[in-house]
UniProtKB/TrEMBL annotation:
One cellular component term from this protein's GO annotations in UniProt: cytoplasm
UniProt xrefs under SUPFAM superfamilies: 4Fe-4S ferredoxins (SSF54862)
Domain 4Fe-4S ferredoxin-type: 1-29, 31-64
Record-given protein name: Ferredoxin
GO molecular function annotations of the record: 4 iron, 4 sulfur cluster binding; metal ion binding
Length: 85
């Protein structure tokens, strides 16, 4: 699954630079995660880095984007390939 940021976000700015896929950006009011870029850090780290640094624990799994670890790894592979083109 991709992750999401809930409205409990305090805009502390610590999650955005931790994302290896550049999936996190500032939205209208709070940070948002692009589910098409979020791999839960599969391919990069053992655990999602944004979740690790979030001081208010407002980054749960996004139930609208159910993905298996294999699908997340495939998404990671496609994202990496797109960076080299």
């Amino acid at each position: 699954m991709a992750l999401m940021i809930t409205d409990e976000c305090i805009n502390c700015d610590v999650c955005e630079p931790e994302c290896p896929n550049d999936a996190i950006s500032m939205g209208v009011e709070i940070y948002e995660i692009d589910p098409n870029k979020c791999t839960e850090c599969v391919g990069h780290f053992d655990e999602p880095q944004c979740v690790q640094v979030c001081p208010v624990e407002c980054i749960p799994l996004n139930p609208e984007y159910v993905e298996t670890p294999e699908q997340l790894l495939e998404k990671y592979t496609h994202l990496q390939a797109a960076k080299t083109v």
